[in-house]
Amino acid sequence: MRDLNVVEKVIALESVELLKNLTPDQLALIAYVARQKSYGPGHVILSPENVPDGLAVILDGSVELLKDGEVLDTAHQHDVLGSWALFDDSPLAVTARAVEETVLLEIRRDDFFDMLSDHTDIASSLFSTLVKRFRALLGSTAGA
User: Fold this and answer.
1) How far apart are CA 63 and CA 75, in angstroms?
2) From residue 104, how far is each of 20, 50, 89, 122, 124 by CA, in Å?
3) In Å, what is the CA distance from 143 to each residue of 92, 135, 136, 138, 140?
4) Which CATH superfamily is domain 6-138 in?
């Protein structure tokens, strides 16, 4: 797969639940720090032994999610790996392994926070999205 331009990266980032409330201009800022990487079949992308340093959007291919050697799920195009890794440096409980030639759009935590420090409007929108997610998990939409 050829390297994507900024507009194509923005389109890929629009599929990320965490980023869904951002404008195209805000997504473009994130696209500038996102890097495209390819992995061959069988390559372990994430594992409990290695702390993830950001999130990845699957651009092409598929990734098995395994726990104790058992396949739990398979992620495909537009799915996200390690979305919480932008905010938390704890190891993941699963292993992510490329099933076939797989291309990811990776956003490293350090690059992400450097960008956020100059664009607080993006941080505000992300925190709003996170709060809504937590409320949904708790089964409450009340402001308490």
Assistant:
1) 5
2) 18, 18, 20, 22, 26
3) 31, 9, 12, 12, 8
4) Jelly Rolls (2.60.120.10)
Number of C-beta neighbours around residue 110 at 10 A: 10
Query: Tokens 């396949």 correspond to what residue?
Result: 71
pLDDT computed for residue 88 by the predictor? 81
Helix axes 24-33, 6-13, angle to 10 degrees: 110
Per-residue pLDDT reduced to its tens digit, 36-60: 999 999 999 999 888 788 889 999 9
- This prediction's pTM: 0.82
Q: Residue 8 belongs to what H/E stretch?
A: helix 6-13
Query: Are residues 57 and 13 in contact, defined by beta-carbon separation less than 8 angstroms?
Result: yes
What is the crossing angle of helices 120-138 and 109-118, to 10°?
Answer: 120
Q: What ranges do the domains of the chain cover?
A: 6-138
